[in-house]
Write a structure and sequence with these properties.
The complex is a heterodimer of chains A (360) and B (368). Chain A contains 10 helices and 20 strands. With 360 residues, chain A is α+β, with helices and mostly antiparallel strands. In chain A, the strands form 4 sheets. In chain A, strands 6-7-8-3-9-10 form a 6-stranded mixed sheet, sandwiched between helices. A 5-stranded antiparallel sheet of chain A has the order 13-12-11-14-20. In chain B, the strands form 4 sheets. Chain B has a 6-stranded mixed sheet with strand order 6-7-8-3-9-10, sandwiched between helices. A 6-stranded antiparallel sheet of chain B has the order 13-12-11-14-20-21.
Amino acid sequence: MKMVEVRLENITHIYVTGRKTQTLAVKDINLTFPHASFCALLGPSGCGKTTLMRIIAGLNIQTSGHVYFDQQEVTPLTPRERNVAMVFQFPVLYEMNVYENIAFPLRSVKVPESEVKRKVKEVAELVGVTHILNVHPSTLDMGSKQKVVLARALVREPNVFLFDEPLTNLDPLGRLEMRSKIKELQRNIKTTMIYVTHDQAEALTLADKIAVMDFGVVVQYDEPTKLYEHPKNEFVGFFLGNPGMNFIQGTLEDNAINFGEFKYDVSDVVEKLKEYGTEFKIGIRAEYIKVSKKPFKGAFKAKCIVSEHLGTSTLLDLKAGDKEFKAKLRITDVKEGDEVYVQFPKEKVHIFNKAGELII
Amino acid sequence: MVNVRLERVSKVYNGKKVLNNVDLEIKDQSFTVLLGPPGAGKTTIFRIIAGVEHPETGRIFFGDKDVTKLPPKERQVGFVFQSYALYPHMTAYDNIASPLKAAKMSKAEIDERVHSIAEKLGISQVLNKLPKEMSGGQRQRVAIARALVRDANIYMLDEPLTNVDYKIRESMRIELKKLLRERGGTIAYATPDPQEAMSLSDYTAVILNGVVEQYGSMEEVYNRPRNVKVGFYFSFPPMNQYPGELVKVGEKTFIDTGSMKVEVTHAMDVLEKVNEKEFILGIRPNQIKLATEPVENPLELELETIVTEIIGSESLVHLKLGDGKMVIHIPSIRRFEPGERLKIAFNQKEVFIFSKATGELVYAPEVA
């Protein structure tokens, strides 16, 4: 299989939406998807991720900027010439059996019949559709159809695979199966894959690197655990994780950030913080907050407003003064209305400026 | 507000029995969750309670009153559908006000009620907008407001969060819980999501293939699933299941699944009573821990990773076990690579035991 590096250089795209109106879909994007890597574009709807993918595929031509496959600039090339394989949300198959569907791209470039047979067999095994080769697609469930689409894409030996939310329409079990299938496939064939999704679980599970997008720009491009543990701003911290990271706003006073009912000591970094003014937000993930019904060293008092039992863990909505935040505990006897003692472990706290950009 | 009761209700669509002798009680002032996969019959039950669908056999009671023959508008139910089903040409305000207008309420009272419920649901700022000008989350809030704005015998919510973006779902679940508790009344809520059932319900009815497999308090159903099917479905992620055979080694008794031997000596009393040789072991993924954590009565295994799924802030690791697999649930973000070997352990006294012949529960672990 081929593997190319896909590189985007200063990509900006503007949609003309009316005679005098236009929409900036993506703005000055620079991204490199390395050889044989699995990368995800992650963000809420309208963030520009699908536009970016269509630009890589050649379905849209960017307003300005360049797209490279390895050293070659592909901007002037048609989608066919770029040889990209696309898998969309809805599987589109031809009115012929699964074997013929997979063989179709080979037939259209007149590959000899013996070669067709060999290749179809090979990819069918890779994707796990050998047992349904004689079946007509209309009788297949969504998951199997998506596998056939995958096999048909694979048989062309594309330069790069592009996925646009391919699992959205599958039921939970089918989604899980397909997810592991794609993961396994990437490991075996080592083709560069770019995956567009709004679902953080898919991105975190599948991708080696994730570009988190918001309002047409890439907010952070990093490895999954890096994104989760060290978000660059409030958007990334909140978007990843369930629940998202807590952000609590307070005022710098002397050597601590004051939140009214409690304080967070920052004596070690106070000089640096002073450069950014007096208003700050601290960010901490729900699962790192320490909660107990008994007082302990360094803890402050809070009240439990909601306790939500989720089987494996319990999610608590806590309130101290006018500050609310969520804590997630594996085992707890804390109930709604209880007074509790809370502590934020230093090594898990991030400090952001008022605008939500990470400082420490 | 009343007790709502279904008595031996059956319903056939296109020759297929979608509800089979359903007995179900939704208690006055309770929050009852109907849990089941798509197509199990949850929506049909709601439609029959609302009176827009009629059962082939069986009766429906509101309190002592048989309402089986009563038309929908005389039943006074509030209904939220999965797809928002708002009137597209009406503003949010008019959508919410529509059931009150139909009930010929005075303008002043309508105005007061609409504003009050809109404020509770955080949609005051969109009251003048049309559905197409709102986000998916706002549309669903409007639909919920429309159902709750009137006084009803029962409020039914049919998968209200399924079509909402997951980020919104996360906050809406808690909001909805608070709101519905405040609102009071008899509430029935259908969902395919076991976590929603756990988080929301006082009572849970597990519905599979048109049959109420089990009904009881949420804790009761979760801690003592009546059979393998309920155990599998009312668990997130689904319960691991392994058929195996009873074997005795000296004083001890085990169930041997071919790929592991789990000690069940502690359950001998009940196992002897059923007088069978073959059982199914059920282990919830959250009962299995990485061997670095302390576990009582441990059975330790070293298994190979198939794939790791990261969901929200948790990880599910699928491990190879014999010809099948074992899924374990880790409450943090960990990504184990395919092929990586992991040492895991679980408490053998925390394992559920079902009869292989009937699927019925034989032994449930004690709840701490």
